[in-house]
């Protein structure tokens, strides 16, 4: 129960921060960077702490995939730089916010594995954690 609730709350934290970044730099810049950061974060956490890369082939292929992913994320940032936006304080602020968002999303994904709780068992309580977290975020939102 607690793992599901905390996992859902971490998702809400990640989502709330991702939406802050969208407000600062727009969805077309936020989403590729956010998605890439989530993929890198979740994969590295799972490989390092959960032992999901157990063979040399998995390690080599995984690292190649991570490099390609980081190159893709960098190209998104370069596009923003060529448009004069990566030097913008809003862009830098958005990157910090996306780092926090990524921590929330990665925590949401890996928490069940850390404590041996299946996704099916956690799902109901995750949704409650998401709803409570979303309610708290919406109460703090200024329109």
UniProtKB/TrEMBL annotation:
Gene Ontology cellular component list: endomembrane system
Domain of life of the source: Bacteria
Family of this protein: Belongs to the GRP transporter (TC 2.A.7.5) family.
Name of the protein described by the UniProt record: GRP family sugar transporter
Presence of keyword Transmembrane: yes
SUPFAM superfamilies (UniProt xref): Multidrug resistance efflux transporter EmrE
Location in or out of the cell: Endomembrane system
Membrane topology: Multi-pass membrane protein
Keyword set, alphabetical order: Membrane, Sugar transport, Transmembrane, Transmembrane helix, Transport
Transmembrane segments: 56-76, 97-117, 123-140
InterPro entries registered for this protein in UniProt: EmrE-like, Sugar_transport
